[in-house]
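Agmatine deiminase
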Amino acid sequence: MTEYRVENKQWMPPEWHVHRRCWMAWPSDDDQWPCGLERAAIAFAEITRAIARFEPVIVVVNPDQIESAKLHLGLSSRPASAVSAVDDPILYHPDRVTDLDAAPGIQLMPMALNDSWMRDIGPTFVFAGRQLAGVDWGFNGWGKFPHELDALVAKNVLAAIGIERIESPIINEGGGIHVDGQGTVLLTESVQLNPNRNPGFSKADIEAELRRQLGVQQCIWLPRGVVDDDTDGHIDELACFVAPGKILALISDDPEDANYDILQTNLDILQQAKDVNGQPFEVITIRQPPARYLDGTRLSMSYVNFYIANGGIVMPSYGEAEYDAEAKEMMQRCFPEYEIIQVNCLDIVVGGGNIHCITQQEPQTEELT
């Protein structure tokens, strides 16, 4: 354990910290998926199976989508033995949890949902001392969509697994923050300071709450995200830490692209930033693929939006051979000891997110020393 972690009673570990499991949520809202719920389910199943090669996965599923999830994942009914009930049996049914015969690491947990963005609706797992806890941020559908059921998911997940719930007074989504586990968090002004999230909260107020909940000492603010991002500019489409002192940043190589100036501004800020010890970060760049549109809206296609599993990276591809191959090669350089798996995510991005958006890591407490 580093000195930084010892000094902070509550802190969020980096995403490469060893995981106990991954949390996901199954797609259920027809209106969210313009190419159809069936295509979304197929894509989710492929990502779930890829992650399950490296670590256990629990998929939270709306009760009316249980059969769909079982069908696409090849599940058979079998009661789970290690999950506790919560107070409301309508939201959680411990007797109906199932697991996968062929891949025992996949389980279903029935729970009322609006849809499937587990990064944003699930708890942010932190260490409180040497015990695991979960931060339950306020969730208001990114300030624009009705997601009353999703606002209860973090609370219900934590109750189901018997982990302490730490309630935060601010609206925040997991896709809006990225930490290095050494005292720094990446975030965007267009999300955290948006009046549709936290009216009346200043930048200093937001920073103070993130320091309290995540154990960070400094915030690196990027101005905004890519165009046509329903989240108003989540950081997980733009940049992420890939190791202590290393940041992977999305760029455009086309000066005529609508994202070019946005991403260049972000890059300039990251290249000038320093860690909590005053050392500059090594900033590695990765090109965004050529733009694609659906009904006039640009799809948020980023290679930065990936999941770090135990010994594996599950990252998107988009049917752009040159860009996909280059991105995979760059990811292998960032994670030389990891197996890299690419999954075509076009049927995910049409819904407004990507692999990182639909996953949430739960860290392994045994890794604390």
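thats it. The chain has one domain: 3-367. The chain has a mean pLDDT of 91. bye
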